């Protein structure tokens, strides 16, 4: 008996409508990337295992999909090791390649491998799928696209300014107005930790602070106490919990907290530069907001930290994020290359646009015109017209069989084709085309020239 | 010590220039697909192993990349089987998923799985990577893109007519003029085998005939004799070796060979229908040619067989192929769904376009304008202009640091940026922009409006 077909859990088939909507997002982002001077690269779907392993922590290592070696793969496993029947120990002997887990590590590998061909600063974007052996759940997949833009080889804060504008440009182009671009700086977090005497507890401190939105001030303080941050230190934090007002006035308040920390002051200086530039340049539809609780992948970022929230009317986590990191390529032996980058959460952006009904109608239309098939002679006559239509950019096709009229009409309706064309004996004699609007039922007789000019 | 980075053999990194050129091919093909009424689908990169295994023959099964199960994968292997240390026997116990080997089997799986949502005839296209554990060699990769268009659920010969026009439309749009679209029909090959009394040796017969171009008439006859085809049968083939003249006159000669085979006559009838339609419709730059030696994947095809050759001045194998198959979805339990489809050989098309210098220059250009950075004030002034340029569709950027002029000019040259803009004190005072042509060295002072209208 034939198998009942299915796909692996956590993966998806995309229907024509879904592909069209996804491509609309990809193309819109891509266009803005290119206006901003970013260039595309692509890396292989699988990398050598040692390129990926050890770069994402133990949990990451477990979630990387490993590819089984071809041929007699057990041949390479010595009998002693084999006899232990230890999955962990045997993996590296029977698998040398693994599927990409994100785009960042392959990008770092690319930069190091191609460093002599690359002109720095190098602005690249990359839109490709990644794979993670995560437990599948709502909105979390084992195969999904990432979409990253990064600049490497430049310490300039203009890059941060550009990325904020780029976020604004992309979401404006997607007609998703009212997103909030939150910004913070690792140096500010370090500065605060220093001021409250918790420099050695930076991670614990930021993990707790990051929860302010969710659990509130009191619980955050409790957690900090539990983690060993002194009561006196926590008291110094008080102004943080009540930061308010404009970006600028918040910065003023932060300054008073951080006046004894060089690193903190540096962070403030960076924020001020960025805020001043963005104020002067203006954003089209997004808002820039200082959020001192924002930490994201703190170990990773060394300067600016970004996160984008969807407009308030939508319940959705962040739809983008990024920041500056100072040693991306060090893991592959190229030191002192500063990078800064952002990413877009494509699956979530898709959900937001769908919920707010922001996909343009034209995105999912397929063909404009279906020619009804009345037989071989009529079919050939129709295909000649269709050829001219296509040469003028009009999507058109002939129903493939001289089936019953009703069946052909049904086909047009099921595919949401807005117009059909009827070509019978009479039309062929007079070289005319009867165009029927499938919604209104209205019919009109046109010459080929008229038909083309109506749709091109 | 840091690892020296590399990628697995048979895979490729694509540089910005290569991605741009590949995207040009993808986009051009995609545009024609949509004009012809094809809709995109996408399927997961990996399928359940039992979806793929057994569909491509033993050799195919070996070349499929298998994904190792996550977690303690050896736990599921019983000790008795484990003790045999037999790679083949253990594979299905430690691997349940595998990377896509082509787009055809996943498409068949998709059609069966989604049959209730699909409106037939279903015209789909798919452009995605596939993976094969083949021995890497020149022009053969372990990861490469396939690009397929198929119609399922229609027996109409108009589909064959449409596919020939589609090939012509795509290669014309790519400016690759002079390709030859070769056509044959499985029924003609079966008919000939029947006439010469070798119906049971159809494969041997066609494999030998397929070599006519390479080894010549005598050797082909020798091989047929060796394979047990009778001398008398081979004599009846004589007219085949001297087939000449127009498509139509070759058909007349074929008819005389095949007048005793019903199947053969049916094949001729199909060819004649297609040839007549194409003659009436005309092709833009391609030529349709009958090639009775064309067999391709004969077991697979049941009607028309297509293959496209690059223009004669280029040494290259086929750059496309396809045909009609009558039971694509049967393997997954959906019977009697006829399909016909074509594919494009993307890597070879890339090589041909490169060799003939057919990529438009605009494909690989990145930004139009680099603003030289003279400091923070000038930078901000420049970014305001850049914002306006981008809103008008002009790719522009600011050099991120106020580095030495020479360094910034070098950067523009290395990235092949055609124009730079100089904004210093004077320009800021007069709200003007000095535009410098990097090739001619010519300089001109413009207002922002003039600058925009020059590049938009």
TrEMBL record, chains A, B:
GO CC, alphabetical: cytoplasm
Name this protein carries in UniProt: Histidine--tRNA ligase
Protein residues bound to L-histidine: 102-104, 132, 146, 150, 296, 300-301
Pfam families cross-referenced by the UniProt entry: HGTP_anticodon, tRNA-synt_His
Domain Aminoacyl-transfer RNA synthetases class-II family profile: 1-400
GO molecular function, one term: ATP binding
The family this protein is said to belong to: Belongs to the class-II aminoacyl-tRNA synthetase family.
Highest rank taxon of the organism: Bacteria
Gene name in the database record: hisS
Gene3D superfamilies per UniProt: Anticodon-binding domain (3.40.50.800), Bira Bifunctional Protein, Domain 2 (3.30.930.10)
Known EC number: 6.1.1.21
Keywords in alphabetical order: Aminoacyl-tRNA synthetase, ATP-binding, Cytoplasm, Ligase, Nucleotide-binding, Protein biosynthesis
Subunit structure: Homodimer.
High-level lineage: Bacteria, Pseudomonadati, Bacteroidota, Flavobacteriia, Flavobacteriales
GO BP, one annotated term: histidyl-tRNA aminoacylation
Record's subcellular location: Cytoplasm
Broad class of the protein's primary localization: cytoplasm
Catalytic reactions on record: tRNA(His) + L-histidine + ATP = L-histidyl-tRNA(His) + AMP + diphosphate + H(+)
